[in-house]
Amino acid sequence: MATTPLRDLLESGEGLPIVEEKTTELVIEYSQGTNDMNYTFSSGAFEPKKHKDMLEAAKHELSEEAGLAGGEWIQLSDNVNGIAELKWGRNRFVPFLVIDPVADETPRAKDAEELIEMRNNVSPADLKKAILKGQLRLPSVQTWIMAEDVLRQRGLL
């Protein structure tokens, strides 16, 4: 799942938060496969024993990684099976947009194996620079493109 909070989500879910200031939050995390640090939106795996659905998984990840909760949640894809991450892998993700989340008063604990830092108040222009430099993981790029369309339709960008 991936979450783009415009103030930035998530098998995997992506989330993008957006705030009134028209900024987002990026996770800077260690990527085992490439052995480096990369930008992503909050994201994580759907676990049937822990989550009732993808939205709940996305909300948990946003709380855990970004310390955010609430806001207006928009699922950005109607594809119930999610979007394939890569042609040679089986991972899929469901992208979400979160508009105006707030600080989570009781954020969920981060996973012990995760090395995560946050980059707050990222403008759309700075996000585009990171994309053009290849610094944002592909599911988050897809999430941003879909979220940007929704935000423009609503007059928020």
From TrEMBL:
Gene3D superfamilies per UniProt: Nucleoside Triphosphate Pyrophosphohydrolase
InterPro entries linked to this entry: NUDIX_hydrolase-like_dom_sf
Top-level taxon: Eukaryota
Protein's UniProt name: Nudix hydrolase domain-containing protein
Species whose genome carries this gene: Synchytrium microbalum
